[in-house]
Amino acid sequence: MTRDSRPSGLVQGTLHMLVLKTLALEPLHGYGIGVRLAQISGGVFQVNAGSLFPALRRLERDGLIRGEWRLTENNRRARYYALTASGRVTLRRETREWETQTTAISRILRATPEEL
Amino acid sequence: MKARISRFIGGVTALLRRRQRDEELDEELGAYLEAAVEARMRAGMARADAVRAARVQAGSLAAVKDWTRDVGWETRIESVWRDVRQAARRLRASPAFAAAAVLTLALGIGANTAIFSAINAIMLRPIPVERPQELISLAARYPDGVEPIFSYAAYRTFAVDGAGLVDALAAAAVRRDAISIDGPPEPADIRWVSGNYFSVLEVPAALGRTLIEADDRRPPGERVVVLSDAYWARRFGRDPGVVGRSVRFKGTPFTIVGVAPRGFSGESPGEASDLWMPLTAQPGAPSWLWTGHSTTWLRVLARRRAGVSLAEARGGLEAVYAGIRRDIAAGTESVQYRDKVLESRLAVSEASRGVSRLRDNLSGPLLILMALVGLVLLVACANVANLMLARAAARRRETAVCLAIGAGRLRLVRQGFAEAALLAAGGGVGGCLLALWGASALERLISGAFPVSLDVSPDLRVFAFACGVACATTLLFGLLPVLSATRIDPLDDLRGTGGPVRRTVPVRLGRTFVVAQIAGSLVLLVAAGLFVRSLSKLEDIDTGFDPDRVLLLRIASPAGEGQIPIAARRTLYSRLFEHAESVAGVAAVSASFSGIFSRETWGNVIAVDGFVPPAGVVPRTFANAVSSGYFAVMRIAVLRGRGFLDADHAAAPKVVLVNETFVRQFFGETDAIGGRVGLCSSDPCGSPAGMMTIVGITQDAKYTSLREVTRPMLYLPFTQVDQTLRELQVRTTGDPAAVAPALYRELAAFDSRLAIIGMVQARDHVSGSLVAERLVAKLSATFGLLALTLAVVGLYGVVAYVAAQRTGEIGVRMALGASRRDVTRLVLGDTLRLLAMGGAIGIPAALAGGRLLAGQLYEVSPGDPLALFVSVVTLAGAAIAAGSVPARRAARLDPSAVLRAG
Q1: Are B344 and B142 in contact (CB under 8 A)?
Q2: What is the pLDDT of residues B816-871, one digit of tens each?
Q3: How far out from the chain centre does Cα B796 lie?
Q4: What are the pLDDT digits (tens) for B16-30?
């Protein structure tokens, strides 16, 4: 099996931004993040473990999120991730960039011959 | 940037706490799965179904773990480490192979590193001064060679007229002479330098002060001296009270003003000085030394001023030299010399590594040795590559299994390289140890013959070189075997139907390596042969004197409280001879102005009655002042007439002896005995100082070196000239080494005005002049034999392997009626084919390589047939001997046993 077969429905990098956004609302553990993403996106994004955990590890390595062992509401140990200060800055910047890009892209897609 | 640092720290932490990290990831994934199961159970699934569904959704947890771990860079290190550990395990499983490979590589890397550390010490290391890259050295380039020394007047002109561009300093060559420090005279290495020597080099004093410009203003300069750190430690035990004390040189007191810093021994690597004194403070220096250009004796170095490029300095100083050139030319009448001077140009070169006679002498030989030893390393690499191939062949099945069950080829290649790297690392470590030993042996060889202090201790550069070589060897011997080992079809191998052995890649590659080894060692053997032949030609040169059983003692010019009158000096010498002859074991004693093969030669312009020189040619001769016993002690035959007698004293008629070349040059067919010769003090001769009568003709004898072309020679009795005697020749009745200690003791205590500053056996002194040649001959022969051994071992391995693979075929042949001789011929034929191919490459390569060596050979042509023949025969003999072992083994096969087994 090679790495290419890794399931991923999202553009690389976009997932990072979404995870950061999710954690900006409140600290969550791995499964919680997946559920929250699915919930907010209305079931469009189903993030599986194979994408989620490498993403979490990368974000943690880059110092954007911090993991911490805590008890869940069911009294189990789970690793909760929270946004760090630099994670917050990164999220703000990426959100801005994303908005600029999507605005530009949708303008291009909507373009009609008359506008040129 | 911040993210990068954070990533780095995270990786290091992960490496250090790997187990904990792994456990945490396991737990986290477990919690993830559990949460997924619970969520499904909350939605109403049975637990068993929920678990299955969650598992399916999450996919392989092992894969998730791998992907997560792979996010960090540290996993790459981990996998390299895994490869290395595995390689170490596999090497431990075959210790014989590992030992052979490491030993071979250690020899190759060690020899290279040893030679390199000598090159580093002599050719690469900058001298320990501030900003050495600003230093330049000056030399005059004549049509017939480079002269690196200048007159004092020329130096002053450079210093004054070039002051806008550079600060120039001057230094005379180090000379061993006698000084006295509250006691009898003792030897010390003295160097006369300009007053700005230390300030231009920017070397501060460790104690007191260094020399300053004011010490050296106008002759006579200040009588002050600076000690080297080594001399201060050796002679004064680092006594800080040494400043202000005085040392006497030729009866003149010099005040010690300071000590140079530790590690600084001058601007010439290898030529360390004990004492530095101002140029113009030399006692008894004649005034013409400071004004004329007739005596060249100073090296000129300079520091470029800030912002002056090498090209600018070159241009500016060339203009200064043009003036000097005109000056010199105007001062000579000799047309020949004037033309030569006017054609000369200034050579300005970068001198961050100082200037060194040792470097000039040894650079060529050392570079040749480096090339040869590099070739040895290639042969060694080919040998290890062959070992790797043989090993890969033995492990073919294992490799096939690995490939068949899905191991990536890249992975196998990485493992192979890990093995190669480990072997090279082992070889590198062993090589460094060997090099430490080899470099100090080299140091002894070199400094045993040159009066030098050489520091070949390895530094960072040597270490980096050894590492670089080890890495290069990894690629050299690892690349092809590792790649070919994995280029197999697992199916064929596992079915046991591999193609015919001789067609497979590894064997073909192995044969290529053997051919390369044979060619390489042939080149080395031929080079060694050429050098050995050249050395023996040099050793066979007839010196014209007999150096056996002769001790040479260097004596400083006699000095007491002041200058000693000539008559008293001559008496002192005569008493010295008598005293030396009274020592037990001494047969006869003589003395001379120029020593045997010394650098202190005496050349003179002469006038010969009846000889009219061609226009523009000034008759010149070498000259020497000798005592009456000189010809008997050195066994230089007096062919006609007589030698010197005691009757040839100062008041007697002036007489001289000349050598055969002198007679040929100035007398031709006419009889030289009774001819008259005069020494001239100007060039060309104005009026000779007084004509002397030739009373005898001696056999030609070498004067300055073995290689010199014999020149006219004029011998004068020391009683009739002003020259001091600098060398005592003592012929002993038995072994000179047995007489030496007593002789030295007796003469050292003989008279406080006479100092012995060196003693050597004439035989050692003469053969010492061949040290570079002997070094090259010895080492190249060693390298040649080493390469030959490796090549023969490699050849044996391949031939034996192929013969073993063909056992079945040979059995069939024998069963069908082939005789043992046919079988021997079959296997031996393989050896001969390899040998022929190696020779076909090696002989032209050796001939081409020989041409590169031509400059270092003496009366041996680069294509010397004897050297070539002996090398080829040696190589062929050794190869056939090695190849006949498997051939005999094959011939002894029992065909029925073979066929039953097959």
Answers
A1: yes
A2: 888 888 888 888 888 899 999 999 999 999 999 888 888 888 889 988 999 999 99
A3: 34
A4: 777 888 888 888 888
* Rounded Cα distance, B254 and A44, in Å: 99
Provide the domain count of chain A: 1
Task: Measure in Å the smallest separation between the Cα of A105 and chain B Cα atoms.
Answer: 29
| pLDDT digit string, tens, across residues B499-542 | 444 445 667 888 888 999 999 999 999 999 999 999 999 989 99
A93 in any annotated domain: yes
Mean of the per-residue pLDDT values for chain B? Answer: 88
Higher pLDDT, B453 or A18: A18
Please give the residue range of the domain that contains residue A31. Answer: 8-110
Residues in chain B whose Cβ is within 8 Å of chain A: 2-3, 6-7, 10-11, 24-25, 27-29, 31-32, 34-36, 38-39, 57-61, 63-64, 67-72
Long-range CB contacts for residues B372-375, cutoff 8 Å, separation at least 24 = B372/B524, B372/B527, B372/B779, B372/B780, B372/B783, B373/B111, B373/B112, B373/B115, B373/B779, B373/B783, B374/B112, B375/B520, B375/B523, B375/B524, B375/B783, B375/B787
Task: Please report whether residue A31 resides in a domain.
Answer: yes
For residue B383, give every residue at least 6 positions away whose Cβ sits within 8 Å of its Cβ, in sequence order, or none: B104, B513, B517, B790, B791, B793, B794
* Helix (H) or strand (E) run with residue B506 in it: helix B505-539
Determine the average pLDDT of the residues in B763-773: 85
CATH (domain of A94): 1.10.10.10
Q: Which residue of B has its CA nearest to A49?
A: B58
Percent of chain B with pLDDT over 90: 45
Q: Which residues in chain A have their CB less than 8 angstroms from residue B10's CB?
A: 60-61
Residue A104 domain-assigned?
yes
Is the pTM above the cut of 0.90? no
> Which is it for strands B145-147 and B713-717: parallel, antiparallel or unpaired?
unpaired
